[in-house]
Input
Amino acid sequence: MSIAGIANGGTGRASGGDTMRRYGASVLGPAAVSAAHFLVSLILLHAMPAGEFGLFSFVLVVAGFGISVNVALISVPLARGLATGDHAILPACFQMNWLVCGAIALLSFGALLGSGAQLRDAMLLALFAGAFTFRWFARCFAYVENRVAAAVQSDLIYALTLAGSLAALAAIQDISFTLGAEMLLLSALAALPPFGLEFFRRQVAALSRHPKHYGPVFRDITRWSLAGVVTTELTANAHVYLVTLIAGPTAFAPLALGMLLLRPTGLMQSALPDLERPRMAHAVAAGDAAALTRIQGHFSLGLLTVWAANVLLCAGALLFLPDLMTKKGYHIKAIIPVMILCALIVAVRGLRTPQAVLLQAAGAFKCLAGICAASATISLAATLGLLLAFGATASLGGILLGELAILLPCYFMARREMRHG
Output
């Protein structure tokens, strides 16, 4: 492996060219996945009623939550353990992956049924959410082992299979809700082979271990990171669950369109931490404050650049290609305030993501959980109040308040960590 890849020069001074190549390799796969989701969402937007489009967007949010839970329970302790030489943590992480993927599939199934999906469609999309979460652990593990090519290949296969199949089918027939669900599941499964037989052997072998082996990991590390993820999800996506379950998927559809337009930035905010977390963990273990500052700076600049490009692209699309970005029943005047609020939310989230990942690498899970609990309370209360008083679009204001509540304390804690290493 590769821990040497993290240790040797992983936190050393990198040239601008090295940084660009490293980010380019890491961004290629997520950018392809983001482009595929964007294209597919546009196809589904034009092919389906607002309620069905809202359900598809809802399951993509739940799948994203699965990624976050997987990172909290598995990827974070994995990166910290290997950075400190604790290879015994690997079997427990492989075993936990089964449990997380199963739990996300069950959660998705229940939420979809509760939101009005048919039984077959709910089963297909629940299996997709589980498979998508499984694939994300595999790519995180590939990054830790310095097998970046495997992660990129998986991303490209997923993106090309999903976008290519749905685009081809849309050219010759109407896309049904069930067909869209089948293509999502097929694409997630088709993207698994690049991780290799050895990965799957280790994953299967983990089934024979007793669950108690994960106990020390949960007690020492992940109980607080999991609490942070759950409360962060409530901070970031309270409107998704509240609007969908209270007002229905049709009311959520315009918000889903706004989220769709900013999805490239959102996916980068989920993907880049997988690249930087191992390097930050090693810098923390080495007490290298200068490296932490350097990594955090590159991380923040990368996210800011993606956000700015995304906003400019969306503004141009809405200005010059409004018929492509919307359909009958979605009015540009209603979409613009959604877009502005979504852009502000994603900007604040991009500012706090590098700070939060640094604190994860430093093991400050309990403090992060406390911050996230406070912000989740603000977000839930404000989102629900604004939804009931002023409607779905106004509910985004509650999410913005919650994001601001988590940004400031994370910023000051991260500054302190970078000073002391």
Remarks:
- Residues 57 and 256 are 6 Å apart (CA to CA).
